[in-house]
């Protein structure tokens, strides 16, 4: 007995077909450019806050007052740690994590273990940078109750670290994207 013929392909999920995305073939290139844009935005936002802080003037109604807070090395430190973490994560050969490829083999489990530890340390550095920037925002800017315009310095550091983490994740996924295999997802760690 045969089943009745359907007017649509039974393998499809929806009755209405989804439009094909013409730039899907270039997802690796798009991911790399998006990651670079996030990296540039991260550093631009923080450098904008640092330059704004360096040129901050006291209010015009009190010209002899001092500016209450500036961006110091303490504000730079979480971003530096996050950038080092981003470099560590993206410099690891992805084939080392699974033990495949030219470097790893079925008998080289120590190399796989070391690569995973280094990957964990890179992600931990990025998470520590984000946590550090949130701590600086809260302890240096919010608790001290500076005027609203000075909170921008701490918010810029948090935006920088979030953007650096997103940049690392997008670049990680873009490096694992396969150009030739359209239906292959390689999200292994």
TrEMBL record:
It is found in: Membrane. The lineage of its organism: Eukaryota, Fungi, Dikarya, Basidiomycota, Agaricomycotina. This is UPF0220-domain-containing protein. InterPro entries: UPF0220. The chain crosses the membrane at residues 30-53, 73-92, 117-143, 155-174. It holds the Pfam family UPF0220. It is a multi-pass membrane protein. Belongs to the UPF0220 family. PANTHER family: SMALL MEMBRANE PROTEIN-RELATED. Keywords: Membrane, Transmembrane, Transmembrane helix. Its main location: membrane. The keyword Transmembrane applies. GO terms for cellular component: membrane.
């Amino acid at each position: 007995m045969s089943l009745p013929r359907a007017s649509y392909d039974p393998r499809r999920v929806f009755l209405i077909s989804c439009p094909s995305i013409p730039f899907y073939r270039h997802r690796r290139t798009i991911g790399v450019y998006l990651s670079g844009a996030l990296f540039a935005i991260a550093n631009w936002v923080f450098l904008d806050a640092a330059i704004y802080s360096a040129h901050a003037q006291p209010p015009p109604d009190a010209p002899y007052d001092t500016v209450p807070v500036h961006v110091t090395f303490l504000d730079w430190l979480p971003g530096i740690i996050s950038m080092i973490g981003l470099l560590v994560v993206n410099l690891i050969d992805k084939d080392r994590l699974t033990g495949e490829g030219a470097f790893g083999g079925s008998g080289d489990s120590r190399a796989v273990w070391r690569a995973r530890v280094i990957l964990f340390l890179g992600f931990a550095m990025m998470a520590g940078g984000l946590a550090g920037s949130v701590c600086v925002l809260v302890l240096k800017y919010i608790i001290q109750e500076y005027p609203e315009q000075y909170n921008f310095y701490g918010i810029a550091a948090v935006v920088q670290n979030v953007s650096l983490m997103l940049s690392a994740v997008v670049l990680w996924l873009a490096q694992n994207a396969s150009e030739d295999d359209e239906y292959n997802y390689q999200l292994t760690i």
